[in-house]
Structure formats: C-alpha cells, structure tokens
Amino acid sequence: MALQDSVNKTGGIKGRPLKFVLSDDQTSPQVALQLANGLIAKHVPIILGSSLVAACSAIAPLAKDGPLVYCMSPGYHPDDGTFVFSSNVSTRDLTTATIRWLRERGLHSIALFTSTDASGQDAEKSFQATFALPENRDIKLVDSEHFNPTDVSVSAQMAQSKVRQPASAYRLEFRNTGRNAPARRERGGHRCPILTTTANATYAQMRQYASFLPKDLLFPGSRASRKNVVTDSATLKAIDSYTKALAADKLRPTYLATTAWDPA
C-alpha cells in the first residue's frame, strides 16, 4: 500500500487513482490457482504474485497468452516469450555470485541445507549447476541435507553434517529455509559462517531470533541494498522514492519489500 499512497499523492496515473486489490493465497498453490482462475474470468489485465515458487508455477500455465503475471519470487524462472515475469535478481545469478564470493576468499568446503518444497528444490538445482562450472572445480560439496519447511528441528541433519565435516577450517551452510529458518541454525555444535537466502533478511525476523543467531550470518544482495555503492542518478532517485514511501508508512526497506515494490 506504500506505493499506492505514494503514486496517488502525486496525481495517480494520468490523473486516475491507483488501487491494488489484495487476495490471500494462504501460501497454498491450490488456493493461488483458484484465485488466478477467478481473476482471469474477470479479465484482470495484471496479476502480481504469488510470492512462492510453487504458487507461481501453478499460475503460470494460465498466463501463456495473458494476462501479465509478475511472480514476486526470484526463484521462479519464466519461459521466454510468455506473459510471466519474476521479480528481482534471479536466484541462479545470486547463487553464482555467492559461490564466486566464497571461492575468492578460499572457502571451498560447503554443506548445503535445502527445504523439500519448490523453493528449496530450485535452490539445490541452482547450486548444483554452479558447482559444475569450470571455475568452481575446487569447490567441494561435503554434505547435502534436506528438511520439510514445517519441521521444528533439523538436529538430525545437523548431526549428520557434523560427521562429514571437511578438513578445511571453514564449513559453509546454505539454506533455503523460508520463514522459520534461523531457529534451526547452529545446533549440533557447528561453528562456521552461514549463508542464507535474502528471504530471511527481514528486521522483524532477525530481532525475533537475535538471542541465538550465528556469529557470522551472511545474505546475498543487490547493489540497491547498499546505497553508497550506487552512482547513477536514475537509480538513486528510484531508491529515494522507495525509501521515502516506506518511511511514510513507518516501514523499513527490506529485500522482500523490493520484490513487491519493483514489479508494482
């Protein structure tokens, strides 16, 4: 709603007010599909959502010839030539950049933790493809563990990973773990840097888990998440518009906010 308020305060779109109509898919692909069918029946020209890979995958076939569907998850990869788009930097590109960052710092032994849902499967495929690149021939995947997003503990997976720890002084754990991720981290005596997805980079979640966050918790990000490295005036203007609009609603910028703001 922050964007809606910002646009309407400056005259709307060609004098017409902007209004977003919200529908709750309840994080369910089945519900998302039902909602999309209903919207298409009403000849809605644009659908923003879902924010989940599985839900976007369910909706996409309906939009082969329109309406325009903008998935708010970079973990969904639309086919070329369709009316389906995805928000922000693709998870495939984030994965490539992440492994490059680790490799250049001499961190070559990696343990991978991924969820069993569509988002986790996308993450695992992206990492496997990245590991196969020639420049990553020295990267060693020492362990790959899986868990259900509804699990309240991954102690067993952590114990298994610990048994397989590499000779290297560093072990990196990547996790595509969704909303409850940090609660599962650093059990089993692991003392290593941890990278997680940008989906977990929210102030509310980090405050909630502050008492047991790992010492070295890292997130991939885009240039716009660090305003001091942006130099072109158009991007700076866009960032200022975004941050001011959120501030007006007493909100702080986060990665998840950008995945909704940019396509809107």
Characteristic key phrases:
three-stranded parallel beta sheet, alpha/beta, 264 residues, 36% helix, five-stranded parallel beta sheet, 13% strand
Task: Write a structural description.
It is a single chain. By secondary structure, this protein is an alpha/beta fold. The chain is 36% helix and 13% strand. The chain has 9 helices and 8 strands. The chain has a 5-stranded parallel beta sheet with strand order 5-4-6-7-8, with helices on both faces. Strands 1-2-3 form a 3-stranded parallel beta sheet, with helices on one face. The model is unreliable at 166-189 (pLDDT under 50).
In this structure, how is the largest beta sheet organized? 5 strands, parallel
Structural class: alpha/beta
Q: Poorly predicted ranges (pLDDT <50, ≥5 residues)? A: 166-189
Order of helices and strands: HHEHEEHEHEHEEHEHH
**Overall geometric form:** globular
Q: How helix-rich are the residues, as a percent range?
A: 25-40%
Assembly state here? single chain
